[in-house]
Automatic annotation (TrEMBL):
Domain (Outer membrane protein beta-barrel) ranges: 31-200
Pfam families: OMP_b-brl_2
Source species: Dokdonia pacifica
Keywords tagged on the record: Signal
Protein name from the UniProt record: Probable protein-translocating porin PorT
Signal peptide from the UniProt entry: 1-19
Length: 234
């Protein structure tokens, strides 16, 4: 599903760009917008986050059920050159993942098979934005960068573990990111849809107090991966 969304988004961008190339020159909106050394804005969007598991021994995988989360934040953009910008997009991201474990004789009841993992992230990325040449009122771009988060729902310091019903993760995971989007210059502002993949570089799992825990004992690494779909207004 995630790959399908990326392909559809890319094809849509391609069609818009081709249409601009094939039409006659048009009056450009906000012609001087990109000449400002610093610009600001805000964004709203959606996310779909997953977990990637690495296991110590090969067993049945933990199944992850994702939900559609919500993003909101601000944008600060610094113009480095005609085609390169440095930007940050601090914001909040809300999401939830449900983990379903395979049956294990160590579980006391069926309720032990399910762990709900909500997350509220304070999200702080640092991105390089590589722009193409503006085509009338359209300008595609790609972004690469890194980010850190503060997970307000991590429960990293909570002494209760899965034996008390509490699945714990680290508070400060780190990510690398890659994405693409398209700037649309409207008469009174710039509107930008973009899509971005995020991939955690650190192990986010806080293991249970008992080493052979059926929830965490066989997991060597747990890391977030997912997609952000944002709509920016500047």
């Amino acid at each position: 599903m995630r790959v399908f969304i990326v392909i559809v988004f890319f094809l849509a961008f391609t069609q818009v760009s081709q249409a601009q190339w094939l039409t006659r020159p048009r009056v450009q909106n906000n012609q001087n917008f990109d000449k400002a050394p610093i610009s600001w804005g805000y964004y709203l969007g959606f996310n779909s986050l997953d977990y990637n598991f690495d296991y110590i021994e090969q067993q049945e995988d933990v199944q992850v059920t994702r939900s559609i989360g919500f993003n909101v934040g601000l944008i600060g953009n610094l113009r480095l050159s005609e085609y390169v910008d440095l930007r940050t997009e601090p914001g909040l991201s809300f999401t939830r993942r449900d983990l379903m474990y395979a049956p294990d004789p160590r579980f006391d009841s069926e309720d032990d098979l399910l762990r709900e993992v909500p997350a509220t992230y304070i999200y702080v990325p640092l991105l390089l934005k590589f722009n193409t040449k503006r085509l009338n009122n359209v300008r595609p771009f790609v972004t690469v960068g890194v980010s850190t988060t503060i997970n307000l729902s991590s429960n990293e310091k909570n002494p209760d573990d899965n034996f008390a019903g509490q699945f714990r993760t680290t508070t400060n995971p780190f990510f690398y990111e890659v994405g693409f989007g398209i700037d649309l210059y409207l008469p009174f502002f710039k509107f930008t849809p973009s899509i971005r993949g995020i991939f955690a570089t650190s192990d986010e799992l806080v293991r249970d107090n008992i080493a052979n825990s059926p929830w965490t004992g066989n997991i060597s690494k747990l890391s977030t991966r997912g997609i952000f779909l944002n709509f920016t207004f500047q």
